[in-house]
Design a protein that fits this description.
Number of helices: 15
Strand content: 15-25%
CATH class of the largest domain: Mainly Beta
CATH architecture of the largest domain: Roll
GO molecular function: histone binding; nucleosome binding
Radius of gyration: 37 Å
Distance between the termini: 129 Å
Pfam family, one: Rttp106-like_middle
Shape: rod-shaped
Family: Belongs to the RTT106 family.
Number of domains: 4
Protein name: Histone chaperone RTT106/FACT complex subunit SPT16-like middle domain-containing protein
């Protein structure tokens, strides 16, 4: 080969001399003829900005103009803003670059990330979903290894990010008041909502930062919906729902993947904290009406019922579930777990108030763990929340729910372990309570709470209680024969209760829906006297009450 300074193909020879050995050998194989060498030499001249070794008069202007365009494009490719964003797709410091983040969401064609970069790989993605919280936009929702990310569908900009270890409860509910079936997904980081004055400890777990994820989908897809499942960090499988397909399967898959991601968080010392409780109501009958008239029907179709209510000036829905009560369709969503409700010896956990009978108010009272300002010690206090403008006919339905799950009120402590057991126990409870169960639950709560005047159907229990007191007194007096008689009577009463077992509503009128215990004649006379005094405008009412 001629000297590079004298050869007509000196540009080619210079490049070949400094190429890596393997590439230089491959280039020598290509240069098998003079025409090939001339073509490659002119290519290098064109890229480097040199003149062509042999050009006709027609090719001269075209060479110069096109050469300038190519050099400009090559300079753009060599700029740091483009090369670094493409090579470091997973670097957290480059997430502010919109073009880089758009590329990151298309991981099917990307390469593996180098050491020391973001390892929060994606797991599952829903494309173009209208979100209400934490932002109000149409975004792509992606479940990552440790976060849920919300990316602008158009620009690829990261709009919001929620840590997985802050999420505690998820709900899949029918959206009420919509003209056509619609699903709502609500995911909560704690039960109480935003902290008040920075003192409240989160009930149901959760970090101090309040996070909620709320979005929805039509039950029938109005357009194509794409989901992406990431098999590895670099490969993904996409599926699409056609217009008219049911979207419930997509939402169920999303929540299932979210639960798996929470359970796989790398924190072995706090595994129980990462448990995500999921509640689903996967039917629309009895729940999709714009008014609360359908809630009474809903309680017979499932363990839950939905009632329209107002919290301050905001309207929403109270969902009465076996595990507790959810306030939704108005931000922020809040949840009252059955085991967090106050016990009856303190104050009623759920009570209804109605002055006219047309509308009523529901007051929810729960145990709340607070930090004392001075000593820093934690103490349990009561928090009350009132919901108004509820139709009066819903009052009895609410009372039915309270009677069914009252035995769980106050059973949980203010830690995650107690709460988990309470939720499981509430979900396992099904069917109406029998009289025997009601008696046992009442006895378990303590004898001090027992009031024979307020218990219309517990005569045997009252007799048994009085027998116990007589027995203790007579033991002190030494009357052994009376003690034996009372003990025998008590044993017979317990045997009768054991023989009753599970009661059949067909043979026991008090177990039938809407049944009320009979009032004594004395009680009727008292009520009639009070009404008579009101109608006649009697002056002695206050004196009688004082006496």
């Amino acid at each position: 080969m001629e000297s590079s300074s004298q050869s007509p193909f000196r540009f080619l020879h210079v490049v070949s001399a400094y190429l890596p050995e393997r590439m230089s050998k491959d280039l020598a194989v290509l240069c098998s003829s003079a025409s090939t060498e001339a073509l490659l030499d002119n290519l290098i001249r064109f890229v480097s900005g040199a003149d062509c070794s042999s050009l006709s008069n027609e090719e001269g202007p075209q060479w110069a103009s096109n050469q300038a365009l190519v050099r400009q494009k090559l300079s753009e490719l060599l700029s740091p803003s483009s090369t670094l964003s493409r090579k470091r797709l997973r670097d957290e410091h480059d997430l502010s670059d919109s073009s880089e983040f758009t590329k990151k969401q298309k991981l099917a064609s990307s390469s593996s990330a180098p050491d020391g970069v973001d390892i929060d790989y994606p797991r599952f993605a829903l494309k173009s979903i209208s979100v209400t919280s934490p932002i109000r936009k149409k975004v792509d929702i992606t479940i990552h290894q440790s976060t849920v990310r919300f990316v602008n569908s158009s620009t690829g900009t990261l709009e919001a990010s929620v840590p997985l270890d802050s999420l505690r409860r998820a709900f899949l509910l029918p959206t009420r008041g919509k003209p056509k079936p619609h699903w709502t997904v609500a995911i909560l980081s704690n039960d109480t909502g935003p902290e008040k004055n920075g003192k409240n400890k989160n009930i149901g777990g959760g970090d101090s930062k309040f996070e909620q994820v709320i979005f929805g989908l039509d039950a029938t897809a109005t357009s194509a919906i794409t989901t992406t499942t990431f098999v590895t960090a670099d490969s993904a499988e996409s599926t699409s729902l056609k217009k008219g397909d049911e979207t419930l399967i997509v939402l169920t898959e999303f929540l299932s993947e979210l639960s798996r991601a929470c359970k796989s968080l790398p924190n072995p010392n706090h595994i129980s904290i990462h448990h995500l409780t999921i509640e689903k109501i996967d039917n629309f009958r009895g729940f999709t009406g714009s008014s609360s008239s359908s809630s009474t029907t809903g309680i017979t179709l499932s363990p839950s019922l939905a009632i329209s209510a107002n919290l301050a000036a905001k309207s929403g829905t109270l969902w009465f579930m076996p595990s507790g009560i959810l306030w939704s369709e108005s931000k922020p969503c809040m949840f009252w777990s059955v085991e967090d409700f106050a016990k009856e010896e303190d104050v009623e956990g759920v009570r209804t108030i109605s002055a006219t009978g047309r509308v009523c108010t529901v007051v929810l009272t729960r145990n709340l763990l607070r930090d004392d300002d001075e000593g820093g010690d934690e103490s349990i206090q009561l928090e009350e929340t009132g919901f108004g403008q509820i139709e009066g006919k819903e009052q009895e339905v609410i009372n039915q729910w309270v009677r069914k799950y009252r035995y769980l009120f106050g059973t949980g402590s203010c830690d995650d372990g107690g709460r988990g057991e309470g939720v499981t126990q509430a979900q396992a409870q099904a069917g109406p309570l029998t009289i025997n169960q009601m008696i046992v639950d009442s006895d378990d709560e303590g004898d001090d709470d027992f009031n024979p005047e307020n218990d219309g159907g517990s005569g045997s229990g009252s007799e048994s209680g009085s027998g116990d007191e007589d027995q203790e007194y007579e033991e002190q007096e030494g009357e052994g024969e009376d003690v034996d008689a009372d003990a025998d009577a008590e044993g017979e009463s317990e045997d009768e209760e054991d023989e009753e077992g599970e009661l059949d509503p067909a043979h026991h009128p008090l177990l039938r829906p809407g049944a009320m215990p009979k009032m004594s004649r004395a009680a009727v006379d008292v009520v009639a006297g009070m009404v008579e005094q009101d109608l006649l405008g009697g002056q002695g009412e206050e004196d009688e009450l004082d006496d």
